[in-house]
Amino acid sequence: MSGFSIGILASGTGSNFDSIAAAVADGRIPATIAVLVCNREGAAVLDKARARGIPTAFIDHRAFPSRAAFDAAVADALEAAGVDLVAMAGFDRIVTGALLARFPGRVVNIHPALLPAFRGAHAQAQAADYGVAIAGATVHFVDEDVDHGPIIVQGAVPVAPGEDASTVQKRILAVEHRLYPEALRLIAEGRVRIDGRFVRVDGREAIGDECLVSPPLPPRPR
Ligand code: GRF
After folding, report:
1. Ligand 1 neighbour 176 (Cβ under 6 A)
2. Residues in the chain with pLDDT < 70?
3. What does the alpha-carbon distance between residue 51 and residue 45 come to, in Å, rounded to a whole number?
4. List of domains in the chain
5. What distance in Å separates the CA atoms of residue 158 and residue 175, rounded to the nearest whole number?
6. Best mutation site among 46, 110, 179 for ligand 1, i.e. most ligand atoms within 8 A of its Cβ?
7. 150 phi and psi angles, rounded to 5 deg
8. How far is 208 from 92, CA to CA, in rounded Å?
């Protein structure tokens, strides 16, 4: 059990949740998942958390008069669980300053596109329809603009002309499942620092050997 504690926000299937929980369980991420907060009753992610013995909190956004009121309740649940980091994994609500101010620089998200391209919903279909040759996913810090904060890691996948959106979506999801645990590992290890628009990662050039997932930087000339 590690002292670093993650709270996850999710609304749906929870395949990213599961990839993170698996990485925590096998020691790749030196952390614990203190709580899963979900806003959709009956979401599959709730069952996935229960199956792993991870505490869950169901908070229905429709029970609140405003986004800020909902966010305050979510922040209360995260704070009560003592989380150090909030990871949004398929959370279908836009978060506001009411939550972000409670976890400054400590909220991250995964978006299924190579930001800043294709922000917002249906990013994979937008990329496929646009005719891109390379699509991908981004893990980034969250600020008050949607899909905008400083980028931690990105992963790329190829797209063939005319491929349908569901094929592209599956390929991106597979890279998400590698990317998000990697980003959370770096943060849990205390190696990640926000520097304006940039995210600095200690020892970044030493990790990763796959050319399509945030390729390691070439050694600096001396
Ligand atoms: C993922 O594609 C994620 O990037 C997006 O929503 C999807 C959630 O999938 N924000 P899952 O619930 O993790 O399976």
Report:
1. yes
2. 1-2, 204-222
3. 10
4. 1-104 (3.40.50.170), 109-222 (3.40.50.170)
5. 11
6. 110
7. -55, 140
8. 30
How much is the pTM? 0.93
**Nearest Cα residue to 99 out of 66, 65, 76:** 76
Nearest to 111 by CA among 181, 172, 33: 172
The model's pLDDT over 203-219, given as tens digits with 9 standing for 90+, comes to 765 444 443 455 444 56
Is ligand 1 within 6 A of the CB of residue 216? Answer: no
Ligand 1 contact, 11 CB (< 6 A): no
Which residues form the catalytic set? 111
**What backbone phi and psi angles, to 5 degrees, belong to 176?**
-55, -40
In whole angstroms, give the CA distance from residue 38 to residue 164: 30
